UniProtKB/TrEMBL annotation:
Segment forming the signal sequence: none
NCBIfam families, per database record: L21 (TIGR00061)
UniProt similarity note: Belongs to the bacterial ribosomal protein bL21 family.
Record-linked InterPro entries: bL21-like, Ribosomal_bL21, Ribosomal_bL21_CS
Name of protein: Large ribosomal subunit protein bL21
Assembly behavior: Part of the 50S ribosomal subunit. Contacts protein L20.
Taxon lineage: Bacteria, Pseudomonadati, Bacteroidota, Chitinophagia, Chitinophagales
Coiled coil ranges: none
A molecular function GO annotation: rRNA binding
Top-level taxon in the UniProt lineage: Bacteria
Entry-linked PANTHER family: 50S RIBOSOMAL PROTEIN L21 (PTHR21349), LARGE RIBOSOMAL SUBUNIT PROTEIN BL21M (PTHR21349:SF0)
Pfam families to which the protein is assigned, alphabetical: Ribosomal_L21p
């Protein structure tokens, strides 16, 4: 059984017991969250798509983490202009408990 769920504007294919990194979801480690925007559900070969889907994905927040550092470097040759800055995006590690 799997589902396609929309979390923070992105679509993820999820299954029971799966852990994945999603864009930052508010909450602390150990909190339970529900995602009600389910786009597709497959239960033993029968698909439910669109408005026919009445499912909810229940998950648990494992940790709030940061991604790898991304460096943005700008330079103009022969002018002495160099600018460097970086950032780390925030992610949430969640574990899918149930697709109901």
């Amino acid at each position: 059984m799997f589902a396609v769920v929309k979390i923070a504007g992105q679509q993820f294919k999820v299954e029971n017991g799966q852990t994945l990194y999603v864009p930052k979801v508010s909450g602390n480690a150990g909190d339970k969250v529900e995602f009600s925007e389910v786009l597709l559900v497959d239960t033993d070969g029968s698909l439910s798509v669109g408005a026919a889907v009445k499912a909810v994905v229940k998950a648990e927040i494992i940790a709030q983490v940061q991604g790898d550092k991304v460096i943005a470097f700008k330079m103009k040759r022969r002018k002495g202009f160099r600018k460097k800055h970086g950032h780390r995006t925030h992610h949430t590690k969640i574990k899918i408990n149930e697709i109901a």
